[in-house]
Amino acid sequence: MNHIPFLVIGAGPYSIATAAYAKSLGVETLVVGKPLDFWKMNMPRGMFLRSGPDWHLDARDVHTFETFVKMRQAAVPAAKLAQHEIRPVPLDTFLDYASWFMGQYDVTTHNAYVTHLAKENDEYVATLDDGEKIRAQNVLLGLGFTFFKHAPRELVEKLPPGSYTHTCDAVDLEFYRGKRVLLVGGRQSAFEWAALMNEKGAEEIHLTHRHATPKFTEPDWSWVQPMARRALSDHAWWRNLRPDEQENIRHDFWATGRLILEQWLDARVHQPNIHIHEKTNIVAVNAHADKTLQESQGKLFDVLLDDGAQFNVHHIILATGYKPNMQNVAFLDRATLRDSLGTVDGFPALDTEFQTNHKNLYITGLAATHAFGPFFGFTVACPVAAKIIGDTVGGKRVANA
In which element (H, E) is residue 312 found? Predict the structure, then answer.
């Protein structure tokens, strides 16, 4: 059994950012997971990110995204420079940056998945799907989004089995060529999936959402990074705010991220075969009654909305986001970890260094947003979490040396 001072489970942005910083401090670190796997497998090709070019992964502020882009732009002829602009940021460009960043810090990964994590005395034992076992003094759970896709119960109860899937499982957009699709949701992901599906040849697309359709405009994210970085000088600033102060910031962040759709989507979704049903709810969805039609076109579902609209579709896609619930993290040993893990509304209860109530077990990313603020669901806060966790683990290494 291998023994490692710092085991990082997951290889998403928060994980590789923390691993890179910990390694720069001299902490022996092992990352288990496939690099940016969720981003590669559960986000569609052609997608753009909402992040600003000043959002990056480096807690040392050296190997930033802007540095990577300038380096790449310098390598292309001036005539082709426009092809390498980063507003908006293409998914593939950020993936290239993440790979380059890992190389700068010599961050490599053990390309396996953890199937079981248990606490034994004062350490942790991880079992991997390749049969290997690893014992670690410190563990970081970089859980990302995989375990937390959200499908509202009141919605799912209206949908026939086999009629729907979540956006993160609907990324092979070529599959929807010639098909009719209903997207449930009215935020950025719903509209971007609609645009990409249409551009891949979907026959007809409907979007339904309970609220008014957000406006298409250029969002202002400039205030977000300075606020996220406040945690570097005061780890507890978010939790020390009054509830109404937290709510005001959440609202401002929500307004920027959810009450606005990116301007570059406007023309792409205002197409004759894309129908937007704002301020509507699904009343009923039933298997189409015409067996002959089903035999010729495949499985069909009749949809009724509460504004009276009726149409039939081949597929229903839930653009309903993600909601952390630590009980969904199945690899956590129930007896030694999961049942005794402190939580608040499904989120892990974390101290000011991202540590859970289990000593030396840390959690970062989306699951940390309750304790540290909404910024930690986005890459903007990767360097912040990396430095706080890295300094904590690195400080223990120095103290124990």
Answer: strand 310-313
Q: Which fold has domain 153-218+262-318?
A: FAD/NAD(P)-binding domain (3.50.50)
pTM of the model: 0.92
Q: What are phi and psi of 58, to 5 degrees?
A: -95, 115
Measure Cα distances from 254 to 15, 114, 207, 357 in Å.
Answer: 25, 33, 20, 29
**Model confidence over 358-400: pLDDT tens digits?**
999 999 999 999 999 999 999 999 999 999 999 999 985 444 4
Looking at CATH, the fold of the domain delimited by 2-148+323-400 is given as FAD/NAD(P)-binding domain (3.50.50)
Q: 23, 144, 16, 119: which is closest to 5 by C-alpha?
A: 23
Same CATH fold, 153-218+262-318 and 2-148+323-400?
yes
Backbone angles phi, psi at 326, to 5 degrees: -65, -20
Give the Cβ contact number of residue 247 at 10 Å.
12
**Per-domain residue ranges of the chain:** 2-148+323-400, 153-218+262-318
Torsion of CA 214, 216, 221, 224, to 10 degrees: 0
Q: Where are the beta strands (DSSP E) in 233-278?
A: 260-261, 274-277
Beta strand residue intervals within 92-185, DSSP E: 109-110, 114-120, 123-128, 133-142, 164-166, 180-184
Please check the confidence at residue 31 and state whether its pLDDT lies above 50.
Answer: yes
Four-point Cα dihedral 267, 268, 274, 276, nearest 10: -60
